[in-house]
C-alpha cells in the first residue's frame, strides 16, 4: 500500500505563527501570509533546551530552600518553605491544598526534569528506543506545564482569605520568585525541544539541530 507523501517530501513547512503550510522552494523563507521567518526545525533545539533546563535546575535549589511566604497569625510570624508549608497545611486539615502545592511545586518540576533529560539524552545518542512513547512523554510534559503556577495561585488565594478575615497577614518571600523562575525556564525548555528529532536518524539530527533553514 502506497503511503501519502510527507511534508518534507513536498518541500512544505508549517508557519509557527499562523499555521499556514508554506512552500520552501522560494527565497527568502518567510510566510506569505504573516511574513514570519520559516524553519524546518527549531534551531539549536538541543543546546537551548539543555541551557533552559540547567538554569531551571539552578533556580530549583533556592526555590525549595528559601522561604516562600511569611505567615503572621495573632501576632506570631514565621517563614515557610514550600515543604514546610505543605506540612503545615496538612497538619491543619487542609490536605487538599497541601496536595495541590506538593504536586505543583515538588512533583511536577521533578517529573519535567527527568522527562526532559530522558528525551535529550536519547535524542543525542540517536536512540530508536520507544519513539512513540517518547513522543507521548513530550506531549505530557507540555500538558503539565500549564499547571505549574497552580500553587502560586493557591498561596495568593490563601493570603487574600487570611487578610480578608483579619486573622493575620501573609507576605511573599524570595523563594516564590525563584520558583516562578523555575516555572518559566522549564516551560521555555519544553518549548525549545523539537519532538521531530525523536524520529530522525543521527546524521540528519546533527545537521538540522545546528543549521537554520
From TrEMBL:
It comes from the Bacteria. Keywords: Cell inner membrane, Cell membrane, Membrane, Transmembrane, Transmembrane helix. Pfam families: PqiA. InterPro entries: PqiA-like, PqiA-PqiB_transport. The keyword Cell membrane applies. The chain crosses the membrane at residues 50-69, 97-123, 144-164, 176-193. This is Paraquat-inducible protein A. It comes from Pseudomonas urmiensis.
Amino acid at each position: 500500500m502506497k503511503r501519502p507523501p510527507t511534508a518534507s517530501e513536498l518541500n512544505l513547512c508549517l508557519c509557527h505563527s499562523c499555521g499556514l503550510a508554506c512552500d520552501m522552494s522560494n527565497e527568502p523563507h518567510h510566510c506569505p501570509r504573516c511574513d514570519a521567518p520559516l524553519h524546518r526545525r527549531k534551531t539549536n533545539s538541543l543546546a537551548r533546551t539543555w541551557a533552559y533546563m540547567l538554569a531551571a535546575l539552578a533556580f530549583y535549589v533556592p526555590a525549595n530552600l528559601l522561604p516562600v511566604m511569611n505567615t503572621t497569625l495573632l501576632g506570631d510570624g514565621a517563614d515557610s518553605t514550600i515543604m514546610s508549608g505543605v506540612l503545615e497545611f496538612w497538619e491543619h486539615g487542609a490536605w487538599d491544598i497541601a496536595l495541590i502545592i506538593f504536586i505543583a511545586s515538588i512533583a511536577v518540576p521533578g517529573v519535567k526534569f527527568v522527562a526532559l533529560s530522558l528525551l535529550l539524552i536519547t535524542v543525542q545518542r540517536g536512540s530508536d528506543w520507544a519513539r512513540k512513547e517518547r513522543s507521548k512523554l513530550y506531549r505530557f510534559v507540555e500538558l503539565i506545564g500549564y499547571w505549574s503556577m497552580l500553587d502560586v495561585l493557591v498561596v495568593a488565594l490563601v493570603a487574600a482569605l487570611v487578610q480578608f478575615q483579619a486573622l493575620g497577614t501573609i507576605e511573599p518571600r524570595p523563594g516564590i520568585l525563584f520558583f516562578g523562575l523555575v516555572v518559566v525556564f522549564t516551560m521555555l525548555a519544553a518549548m525549545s525541544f523539537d519532538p521531530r528529532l525523536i524520529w530522525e536518524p543521527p546524521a540528519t539530527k546533527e545537521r538540522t539541530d545546528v543549521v537554520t533553514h
